[in-house]
Amino acid sequence: MKPITKPLYRVDGVHGLFADAAAWDQASGELFFISLWGRDTAIQELLARLSLPAGQGGFSSFNLTASDGGKTLISVSNPGRLDKLSGRMPTANLFGALAHAWVFVPSIRHPDFAGHRALMIAQGGGHDLGLGDDAFISDAVWPLFKDASHLPLLDEWRKDVIRVAVEHGWLKCHGGLAVDVLEIDLSAPDYETVICDLIRAGQLRLPGESSPPVHSDNGGGPAENADSPSPGNKRLTGEGLESHLCQFSGTENWYRHGLVKGMLYTDGVKSFAEKGGAEGAYWFLDVVATEIFPLLRNEPFLSIVLSVQGRKATVKVVDGNCQMLWEKRIDFTDMQTGDWKFYLTDNVLLLPGEY
What we know:
Blueprint: E1 9-11, E2 17-24, E3 31-38, H1 40-51, E4 61-65, E5 71-75, E6 83-88, E7 99-104, H2 106-109, E8 117-123, H3 134-148, H4 158-168, E9 171-177, E10 179-185, H5 191-200, H6 238-245, E11 254-256, E12 264-266, H7 267-275, H8 282-292, E13 301-309, E14 312-319, E15 324-330, E16 338-345, E17 348-350
Parallel strand pairs: 12-17
Antiparallel strand pairs: 1-2, 1-4, 2-3, 2-9, 3-7, 4-5, 6-7, 8-10, 9-10, 11-12, 13-14, 13-16, 14-15, 16-17
Helix pairs in contact: 5-8, 7-8
């Protein structure tokens, strides 16, 4: 059987101390993880010198030197935040009293789910986040990514979400020596907006949803009237939809939103979503569920108005005292012109006539 060999890197400045794996922030050089081998006194010396000022023999960085003389600089600006796990080799071995220690940042061991951040060690190094290493992403990265996300994510979205996460820098791979560290940071202010936009655009679809309609450019000609049905299109005009919704004075059924399970909606809202726009207005329910529904944590009653003029729309939310809480502009819609009003209370989205 061929023996397994693994390179060792000398820790400069501490006699008899070596590392067989390490990873650091590729931008700052800050240490994420290092695996150390040596006598216990050597490991303790390194940790002690990292905490001492330079005038007392301490240092805030050190080099790992390979057998060919190549050096890698590792920085440790805050040694107090590092955790350590250590053990000893059996005394009856070729090297004598040898200790092994892992030194690492705490978020590798205990992800900050409240802050939507996580780190994980990936053994081997050279992992491809460009979806080339799909099995690794599916088995290791995606479960942790979902745990760190405050938005619910479907497994069917994995490839698209990971691709977008890499593009926006929410998911990074920090290469190292023998290992990589994957960094997930979903605290970015644009994370929720981008994911919600992908859902509304139909790039992330709920189970059973068909592909979104494709709106072609008419080459600069006059835009179609949003309230004028095209030949063969049976959708209601704005006045027709308003008259139709006035029929709802209560609901016999409650429907659970497919993405945000805590939000329910009524028969009237379901009919609005089915008959609004050229191909339905379920996108509006997604806006309410992902962006407005969280406001119920602080306000028990919300009044929502979707105002449509031509191809543009605005969604406004006020509380029970008519104080403005939230507003969003929509640059393109095929929704019928009008002011479409809804109430959101007790986790239920309903029409005013159903209240």
